[in-house]
Amino acid sequence: MRSMRYGVVGVALASLTLSPPVFGAGGETVDRSSPASTLELSYDLYVGGIALGKVAMSAHFQGTDYKAISTLATSGIVNAFWQSKIEAASNGLVRQGDIRPALYDSYSQNRKDERRQVTLTFGPEGPQSLFSDPPYPEARYPVSEEQQRRTLDPLSAAVYLTNSVNAQNAKPCEAVAPIFDGRRRYDVALSFVKKADVRMDNGLYRGPVSVCRVKYNQIAGYQQTLLEQGKKLPQMFAWVTPIRSRLDPSRQFMLPLRVWAETEYGIVVALASAAKVDGIAVGTQN
């Protein structure tokens, strides 16, 4: 069961990564005269055709400021053996695709584990302070200061991967998000595979996409057995399509519509059930 669990987590991270907590102070004063743009994404998670749960993310952009919230909750039969809920909020600055988080808050609860709240504050070079309740066992699986340098929290990484990542290039999925969640250090790396025309069974989208390979690389903060399991994770792929904001034409989003991996338990899928840019649903943008 453990192999399936970490495969599912990798898919969720790739598609997004993760009622959210209140935003804390951070970043710079927002220029209210700048055009604002919003992104809303919702996904259904499946394993072998069985419903696993739901992931949702929304983000607000204005000038160089971004604020994002995200939720992940398992549901259905999977709750009998692995029940989990994660709520997160993040804010910071985005400049020409470069993301600089300021504050990250998350709350998680697993069926067999205690509740946990994590707060990360960031400076120009990466995380500056970490609060975890209950505390993480830092000495057990340490992440060095150098490994934390210039990293993103999981939600800011999702903002980075959906916010014009090489959107103008012929190969739009070439990107690596370096992530530190307060305990673990890992990369989510995207690479271009090919162009394709697709039709989603739920009717959300029909048209051209980029097929992108998604790789989840564990770096530090894991016990050795999990690092070895991480090397055996199945290949993951995503359908990604660009959508330009109508309210802020300088901003273009790269939306993952389907993320999947073939595992011994069947195909693990994160399937977009709703996707909106500036309140307008994908598929009605043109």
Summarize the structure.
This protein is mostly beta strands and 286 residues long. It has four helices and 14 strands.
Order of helices and strands: HEEEEEEEHHEEEHEEEE
Largest beta-sheet characterization: 14 strands, antiparallel
Estimate what percentage of residues fall within beta strands: over 45%
Radius of gyration: 18 Å
Inertia-based shape? globular
Ends apart, CA distance between termini:
44 Å
Mean pLDDT: 82
Q: What's the number of helices?
A: 4
Helix content: 10-25%
Number of E-state strands = 14
Sequence stretches where pLDDT stays below 50 over 5 or more residues: 1-28
Question: Structural class, please?
Answer: mainly beta
Question: Which helices and strands appear, and what pairs or packs with what?
Answer:
Layout: H1 2-15, E1 36-47, E2 50-62, E3 65-74, E4 84-95, E5 98-110, E6 116-123, E7 126-133, H2 145-148, H3 154-162, E8 175-180, E9 185-199, E10 206-220, H4 224-230, E11 236-244, E12 252-263, E13 266-277, E14 280-281
Antiparallel strand pairs: 1-2, 1-13, 2-3, 3-4, 4-5, 5-6, 6-7, 8-9, 9-10, 10-11, 11-12, 12-13, 13-14
